[in-house]
């Protein structure tokens, strides 16, 4: 069983610039492009089978997402990572992830709750011995995106996607050192079911502990 690629399926990609954005973002989040690596827009254009203009448009968006950084006369690079980023990102997520979970529990329509319950069941039945850790991270991303959508606030969704992307980069950087990635992903089952049941208080608590647990896990291996 495998997850959809990140949070956008092919039907949502409306232009070549969107296609380039999603593809490059995926590589940056999953560290196929490592922190500090130079970005070769010509090479990316060839690899993605698009022109240089869509790639350049995508890179501008990714700079706004803090996933790449451009320097005059030097070029564009994947944003570096510093351990201080973890505290800053967790500080924001610890406030907003519980809010999204609460709103999803309170406001999501029945069909959204049914989709979250189905996602919980699929994760519960994953055979973690047969799935590599990168694939588990894709499940992690899929869960968070589903909750953000269910919250029904596009502005909150946009902010949380940005910071979840940054958190996932940090997670991937330390993935090989973390012994409990499957447990971290498994925590989503209870969270998704609390939201699907409309239990806003429990969803809020579980979402906050999930974010704080992520930070503790990373700090334990630094």
Question: What's the overall geometry?
Answer: globular
Order of strands side by side in the largest beta sheet? 1-3-2
Global Rg: 17 Å
| Average pLDDT score | 88
User: Cα distance, first to last residue?
Assistant: 32 Å
Strand content: under 5%
Assembly type of the chains comes to: single chain
Q: Count of DSSP E strands?
A: 3
Alpha-beta content class:
mainly alpha
Order of helices and strands: HEHHEEHHHHHH
Residue runs with pLDDT of under 50 for 5 or more positions: 1-12
The amount of helix comes to: 55-70%
Number of helices: 9
Largest sheet: 3 strands, antiparallel
In a nutshell, what does this entry contain?
This protein has helices at residues 16-29, 41-48, 52-64, 83-107, 110-124, 133-151, 154-173, 181-196, 200-221, and strands at residues 38-39, 68-71, 75-78. It is mainly α.
Main features:
222 residues, 9 helices, 68% helix, mainly alpha, three-stranded antiparallel sheet, 5% strand, 3 strands
Outline the structure in words.
By secondary structure, the protein is mainly alpha-helical. Helices cover 68% and strands 5% of the residues. The protein has helices at 16-29, 41-48, 52-64, 83-107, 110-124, 133-151, 154-173, 181-196, 200-221; strands at residues 38-39, 68-71, 75-78. It has a 3-stranded antiparallel β-sheet. The longest helix is centred in the middle third of the chain and has 25 residues, at 83-107. The relative contact order is 0.15.
């Amino acid at each position: 069983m495998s997850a959809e690629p990140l949070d956008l399926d092919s039907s949502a990609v409306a232009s070549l610039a969107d296609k380039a954005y999603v593809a490059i973002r995926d590589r940056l989040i999953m560290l196929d492009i490592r922190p500090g690596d130079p970005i070769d827009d010509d090479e990316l254009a060839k690899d993605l089978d698009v022109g240089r203009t869509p790639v350049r448009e995508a890179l501008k968006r990714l700079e706004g997402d803090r996933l790449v950084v451009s320097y005059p006369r030097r070029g564009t690079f994947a944003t570096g990572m510093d351990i201080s980023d973890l505290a800053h990102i967790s500080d924001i997520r610890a406030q907003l992830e519980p809010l999204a979970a609460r709103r999803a529990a309170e406001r999501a329509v029945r069909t959204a709750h049914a989709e979250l319950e189905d996602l919980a069941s699929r994760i519960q039945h994953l055979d973690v011995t047969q799935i590599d850790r990168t694939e588990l991270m894709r499940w992690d991303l899929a869960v968070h995106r589903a909750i953000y959508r269910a919250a029904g606030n596009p502005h909150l969704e946009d902010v949380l996607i940005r910071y979840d992307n940054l958190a996932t980069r940090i997670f991937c950087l330390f993935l090989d050192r973390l012994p409990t990635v499957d447990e971290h992903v498994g925590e989503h089952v209870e969270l998704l079911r609390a939201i699907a049941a409309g239990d806003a208080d429990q969803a809020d608590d579980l979402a906050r502990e999930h974010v704080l647990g992520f930070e503790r896990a990373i700090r334990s291996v630094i």
